Amino acid sequence: RGTRAEISEKVSVRIEKEIIDLVPELMVMRSQTGGGFAWITGGAGDPSIIEFHLRLVSLEKRRRSTREIEGILRDRLNGLIPGTRITFGTTDPIEAQFIGGRPIVVEVEGEDLDLTSAFADSVKAILEQTRGCVDIDVSRKTGKVEYALRIDRQRAALYGLSVNQIGSQLRSRFEGFIATTYRKLGEEFDIRVLAHESDYNDLDKIRGINIQSPMGPVPLVNLVRFEKELGPVDIERKDRTRVVNVSCNLSGRILSSVVKELRQGLARIPRPPGVEYRITGSAEQMRESFADLKTILIIAVILVYLVMAAQFESLSDPFVIILSVPLAVIGALWMLFFTNTTFNIESFLGVIMLAGIVVNNAIVYVTYTRILRDRGLGVTAAVIESGRTRLRPILMTAFTTIFGLIPMAIGYGAGAEMRYPLARAVIGGLLVATLLTLVFIPTFYHTFHRGKLEYD
């Protein structure tokens, strides 16, 4: 912290050249010195922070994924320029405020700055030891180095100066003062007079500044003491409580496994009195979303059952049909496992879709079995005949859906990385449920109706 803007600009140019050389897939790149939301608030921001926003060509026009390119940049840029620290993220800073930000954020709460800072350092050490955690960052930064001017009140009084007079003259020199106002076409423009930057860009020049007093000009060094110290620390608050965030990105591991390992590590370190912590970020949103999706899945299964119960005017036959849903879940999990796809929100949505899709095959089978029984066939004969007769319609219905989802499942097209988990879950669930439906659904149906009268 405390880096001058012109130095940051030179660093920015150097990094831009490296990015252009390393990423031929680059379409647009924008860099901003100052970082954060300074461009929204109109402030200057912190000149020691540089943000780079990269837009790549569409996925079908490149061979490397976003994660692969991010990994290459992380390996090559970190350590390129001494004194710099580079972090990465695939989320826009504004979007991060609404969708959870970084994957893992540990919020450390407490009023004691020393205790919370020490505990945050312990959390950082655990993240550094956890495989897959990269770009680790602590939100509470140490203050930047600055010089404080301590006015010697007794000596200032000898020259007839007060603290306010000395401060006003220094402020006028560094920040300037409005000398007059220029009016043109009904608009007013302030004219500010201030010293040239070359007059105070060196500590010795500042010491030699003359302060006007009733006894004549007095060198500043005769009135103040220059003390080198750290500036104030940034203090964040949440719900009126001081908080420090320790966050990281992920590389090469799924979020749930890293969170599990992190919880085990946090449980081993002593927690100071008055200090609390909780894991937030995308991990918290994932936990909340999964809880909501579980509820939605249960509601979906209940609604499907109620609709079939009203249609069949029976409770047992819809129950047999609904047993195809667990078979579909097994198939979805197998497909995700064999394709090395994470079980995320998209794949969970695919499982919810399966609750309404896979029952179609069982409905076709059970409906025709009931028709055969109404014609006088016994349970065993109806089960066998229905399986033989309905085999082709069941396979046609399932495979038309599977073939239609294959382009999405192989990751073709822009934004495919967000869609293929859903498609793979549906394909796996539908494929396994279709094959097992031809075995288990007849078995379940025969089991539920074997006590009823058989007809030849």
Topology:
Elements: H1 5-22, E1 26-33, H2 38-41, E2 50-56, H3 66-77, H4 93-99, E3 104-109, H5 113-129, E4 133-138, E5 145-151, H6 153-158, H7 163-175, E6 177-184, E7 187-193, H8 203-207, E8 210-213, E9 216-219, E10 224-230, E11 236-238, E12 241-250, H9 255-268, E13 276-280, H10 282-312, H11 316-322, H12 324-338, H13 345-357, H14 359-374, H15 379-389, H16 391-409, H17 416-449
Antiparallel strand pairs: 1-2, 3-12, 3-13, 4-12, 5-10, 6-7, 8-9, 11-12
What do you see in this structure?
The chain has 4 domains: 1-97, Alpha-Beta Plaits, CATH 3.30.70; 102-142 and 233-280, 2-Layer Sandwich (Alpha-Beta Plaits); 145-230, Multidrug efflux transporter AcrB TolC docking domain, DN and DC subdomains; 285-449, Multidrug efflux transporter AcrB transmembrane domain (Multidrug efflux transporter AcrB transmembrane fold). Helices cover 53% and strands 18% of the residues. The chain has 17 helices and 13 strands. It has helices at 5-22, 38-41, 66-77, 93-99, 113-129, 153-158, 163-175, 203-207, 255-268, 282-312, 316-322, 324-338, 345-357, 359-374, 379-389, 391-409, 416-449, and strands at residues 26-33, 50-56, 104-109, 133-138, 145-151, 177-184, 187-193, 210-213, 216-219, 224-230, 236-238, 241-250, 276-280. Strands 3, 4, 11, 12 and 13 form a 5-stranded antiparallel β-sheet that branches. A two-stranded antiparallel ribbon has the order 1-2. Strands 5-10 form a two-stranded antiparallel sheet. β8 and β9 form a beta hairpin. The relative contact order is 0.10.
